[in-house]
UniProtKB/TrEMBL annotation, chain A:
InterPro entries: DUF2849. It comes from the Bacteria. Pfam families: DUF2849 (PF11011). This is DUF2849 domain-containing protein.
TrEMBL record, chain B:
The keyword Plastid does not apply. Residues 52-109, 340-392 form the Nitrite/Sulfite reductase ferredoxin-like domain. One of its GO terms (molecular function) is metal ion binding. It comes from Sphingorhabdus rigui. PANTHER family: BLR3264 PROTEIN, FERREDOXIN--NITRITE REDUCTASE, CHLOROPLASTIC. SUPFAM superfamilies: Nitrite and sulphite reductase 4Fe-4S domain-like, Nitrite/Sulfite reductase N-terminal domain-like. It is an enzyme of class 1 (oxidoreductase). Its EC number is 1.8.1.2. Keywords: 4Fe-4S, Heme, Iron, Iron-sulfur, Metal-binding, Oxidoreductase. Residues 119-272, 404-540 form the Nitrite/sulphite reductase 4Fe-4S domain. This is Sulfite reductase (NADPH) hemoprotein beta-component.
Amino acid sequence: MKLLTGNELRSGAVTWWTGSGWSLHVEDAVDVGEHGEAVLHAEEGARRVNAPYIIDAVATPQGPRPAHIKDRVRALGPTVRPDLTLKPADPAAGDWII
Amino acid sequence: MYKYDHFDQSIVDARVAEFRDQVNRRIAGEITEDQFKPLRLMNGLYLQLHAYMLRVAIPYGTLDSRQMRMLAHIARKYDRDYGHFTTRQNIQYNWIKLEECADLLEELATVEMHAIQTSGNCIRNISSDQYAGAAADEVADPRPWAELLRQWSTFHPEFSYLPRKFKIAVIASPEDRAAMRLHDIGLELVRQNGELGARVFVGGGMGRTPMIAPEINPFVKADDLLSYIEACLRVYNRYGRRDNIYKARIKILVHEIGADEYRRQVAEEFAHVKTLGIDPPLAELERISAFFAPPAFDAADVEPDRSDPDFAVWLDQNVKPHKQAGYAIVNISLKPIGGIPGDATSAQIDVMADLAEQYGFDELRVTHAQNIVLPHVAKRDLHAVWQALREADLAHANLDLISDIIACPGLDYCSLANARSIPVAQKIATRFADMDRQRDLGELKLKISGCINACGHHHAGHIGILGVDRKGVENYQLTFGGSGAEDVSIGKIIGPGFDEDGVVDAVEKATEVYKTLREGDERFIDTYRRVGLEPFKEAIYG
């Protein structure tokens, strides 16, 4: 599957295309398939997201898992500061990165 | 400390106003990201993995308590309650919002600070010796020269679009505490027959092509120094490789045409530049130097009570001799066992500011090893300072030991990184947590970079670790034999890489080999240089 991701223009936060808008949670991301480029260009014009790009991901029962470690770190947050990730209450969340 | 004059303040204030307008136009959609990106980078604002990152310049690593408190305030108000001190003697904030950045910079400008020229192909923050003005072995105070270079390089119209970024270091001691020869230009102030001048080294650097800067001139008189450096930059600006980013640094130019030819061209250009009269008049140098006059040292030379063993260890490890009797240099390690190298909470930053104000003539320094220095502390106050540091979890007695690790932010934060650096640093520090074990190993400089750009100075580590991406999996290469000090050298890769736990094991095996083979007072690097790689390789790879 392919996901569209970027950073919110105003805050810089990592964000994922949900099919109708943007979410901070990769679990909400949808497969953009062949339409990724078109959505990317439209969203760039809308000025909500900075530097959007398309990545490969794998569908899992827990939701999409980005194929590259860099995007998995982006999806969660810094592994060395679990308190600053999107799952601060889950001490094992960092295992998802590896 | 240098204080801004009207010109300094007005250009910084004007830049904040200009950037505010640029941000507003970007948010309003009047300019694209392609148009905005070079503008935000000129103001130190990057887009990293999780958010915008702001790099704030700390000129030659020098701060007063008012500025330090502002750094804490910014961490608290605009970031997530911490900052990251870097190998460029700067501070980075990892979670800055674009829409708040101009407000942040406006507050920063009230304490004579900014983020200008902390990115882009320009002359970056001038770095220097963190012990400047306090070291017994310095021939002069390097800070006035670093400040002069800061003023000269700020918005220098000819050098705002160099082929690539440009880093200058100034030291004034035979002991190099600033990795001087691993800079684009390294200056070592020296005296020749009583006259002050500088040895000039050009073309050093780390990154993907590490090089030690050759000496281009053994003595440039102080009166000629600015013109000479201008000539060095002009030759680079004219012939530097703008066609290939990987060959654009001055080290490649000097290497390709050779030091002799580069020297000849600089001499030719210098003869012309000297006619332009850019060297400052004596009065201006004296004006700048006056800001760096020694403080009013008046403490009696009393040795501290060493009866507390923890305090005694901290004294031995983190406190260095001062040129003034009765005083000492205090190093504050930002390397807690298992912590993040270079990170400090806003509360810790405030504590360090308070200590500087109360005990240290209001001065602090940031080191390229990501620690903080109080350069002038009376020996009678050392115990009180240590107690306050201990309460703030800042009294780690590991300066220059194996757990005093330089590490870049790596893949946990950086969009360029290929592998995480910080977890490796945490595991190594934890493995060697026992202080007796660390102290038995002695000086061992371990440096970790998460990619080939080498922000973690791995080339200059006695033990260096480079994180690479091997088919999507983090892998770590080991290098031995690097040094950023006066015995400067570039580390060599010892063999195939390791996974995260494997590299920690390999480092431990290397220390065991060292302990077995060391002679007398040899440090790890001395033993490595004497016996070579083979015994280490045999132990690590079997």
